[in-house]
Amino acid sequence: MKKINAYFREAYNELVHKVTWPSFGQLQSSAVVVMIASVIMSLVIFAMDLTFRHVMTFIYEFLY
After folding, report:
1. Is the distance from CB of 19 to CB of 27 less than 8 angstroms?
2. Is residue 64 over pLDDT 90?
3. Spatial distance between the Cα atoms of 35 and 25, rounded to a whole number of angstroms
4. Dist CA 64 CA 60 (whole Å)
5. Model confidence at 62, in pLDDT bands (50, 70, 90)?
6. Alpha-carbon span 32 to 26, nearest angstrom
7. Interval 10-50: pLDDT, tens
8. Which of 26, 42, 54, 61 could form a disulfide with 22 if both were Cys (CB 3.0 to 4.6 A apart)?
9. Which of 47, 48, 52, 50 is CA-nearest to residue 60?
10. Who contacts 30 (Cβ-Cβ below 8 Å, separation ≥6)?
11. How many CA atoms lie within 13 Å of 27's alpha carbon, on the beta-carbon side?
């Protein structure tokens, strides 16, 4: 039981005194970067899916 209490004490101490938390402005800028990257990745995946669909449709129409 002493080990568990020591663990929680150390974890709390580290979170409160040793961790550098980002400011609200840094969080906002990071969120914007993540949103832009997500939109770009979704557009790339959409383009790949659309291209693959058209290629497969062409192949199936050509074969049959």
Report:
1. no
2. no
3. 15
4. 6
5. confident
6. 10
7. 999 999 999 999 999 999 999 999 999 999 999 999 999 99
8. 26
9. 52
10. 22
11. 5
Length of the chain (residues)? 64
Contact 22, 30 (CB under 8 A): yes
Using CA atoms, how far apart are residues 35 and 49, in angstroms rounded to an integer? 21
22: which residues sit within 8 A by CB, 6+ positions away? 30
CA-angle at 50, arms to 49 and 55, nearest 5°: 95
